[in-house]
Amino acid sequence: MKDRQWLAAPAAFAAMLAALLATWAVMAPDALVRSFDNDGRSPFEVATLFVYAAIIPFVWWKNPFGGPVRRRRLLALAVSVVACMAIVKELDLHIALLRLVYPECVGADGSMAPGFFKPDGRPLTGTPFKMRVLTNAAVPLGMKACIVLYFSLFFGLFAALFAWFFPKWIKGVFALDAASWAWGCLGASGVVVQVADRLPSWLGHAHGLDKHAAGGVTAATSLCTALEEGSEMMLAAFALMTIWFGWRKLRGSDAA
Questions:
Q1: pLDDT at 205
Q2: DSSP codes, 57-106
């Protein structure tokens, strides 16, 4: 019988999404938001941190990468750095650090302080981790360097890993390789995170609404919260699954 381990990841992806939707269906919107998103202090967010933290020892214990020892260690180190940066992002430590070092640029709420403007004269709002902050001449060079370092260690390193393994991943998907399918579900979880994160703003812009004008939590916004926070945990879970399947495949190759 043909090995069907590749089905584990898509089945888990569907089950996790179904669980999130079921949770949203039975919980009151405001209660769901308190449970899933409370500035890093909700039960679900705390649990997510532990899942991300588990990636670091797991990738060294069950190293899924082949080749020379140095290559395997460097790739495990790269995965560990990305996991660390994911924890930093979950806890908003990157914003707290900028606020500590550049209090004149970052406000108490983590947004850009007053006094910085876009080319069209409008105030520069939102978190400092935006491209428009990097291109603003009034922002200190050191602060820009910190932002670039954050993007490089998190998104840049992740993108480099994905690009490095992309040809192998494509082949693995068509070969029904379990690790490749788990990695694909990790990417799909990331897409859900981004869509759920941006959807309220997209709908607000489409209908000419201010994002703070809704006047409370609605069923739609609580759904986006459940999908965003839930998919962030799914990212970490599928990273662990990818490592596990990759290690098992490597061990099987070594034994053969």
A1: 59
A2: HHHHHT----S-HHHHHHHHHHHHHHHHHHHHHHTTHHHHHHHHH-TTTB
